[in-house]
Amino acid sequence: MTDAKGANGPLSRLAAGVVVAACAFLPVQAQQALDQPAGPVVLTIQGGVGRTNQGDRAQFDMKMLEKLPQKSFTTQTPWYPQPVSFTGPLLRDVLAAAGAKGSKITAVALNDYKTEIPFEDATRHEVIVARLMNDRPMPVREKGPLFIVYPFDTKAELRTELYYNRSAWQLRTLQVK
What we know:
signal; 11 strands; OxRdtase_Mopterin-bd_sf; globular; Oxidoreductase molybdopterin-binding domain-containing protein; 23% helix; 177 residues; four-stranded antiparallel β-sheet; alpha+beta; Sulfite Oxidase, Chain A, domain 2; five-stranded mixed β-sheet; 2 domains
C-alpha cells in the first residue's frame, strides 16, 4: 500500500481530481478567445464586452459574422415599397460572441447616426444584424454593409416609429452600456 506522500497515493489521486474539476469551472472566455478578423473590420463592439480581440473591443469581419448561425425573414419596411428578405446573425448571437452584457446598446452608423436599443430587445425579438438583402450583400449606398432589422411583420408592436428608429443601417459600432 502506498502512503499519502507517494506519487500514486490516494491523496495524490484526489488532488489530481480536484485540479481537473477546477479546470472545468474556468471562465469560458478564458478558454475561447475571439478570433482575429482576417478581412476588413465591418463591426466593432465596445463597452460591456467580455471577449475581445483588439484591446478592449470585439471586432468582426464579414466572415466572422457569416460563421455565426444565420436567420432569414421577409418583412415590410418603411424604406422599401415591397417586402424585403434579410439574412444575418441574430443580434443576441453577435452580442454573445463578444461576451457583451449591459442594459442598453447604442448603435452607430457610418454617418454617425446613433440610436439606442434596449439590451432586452436582443432577447425579446428576433432582431438580426442583416448582411444580406434579397440574398445579396448590401453595398453602402443600399444601407449596407450591415443593417439592424426587426421582424416588423411578426408583431404589431414592432410596426411603429419606435422600432423603425432602432433599425440602424450602415451599422459600424455597437456600444454596450
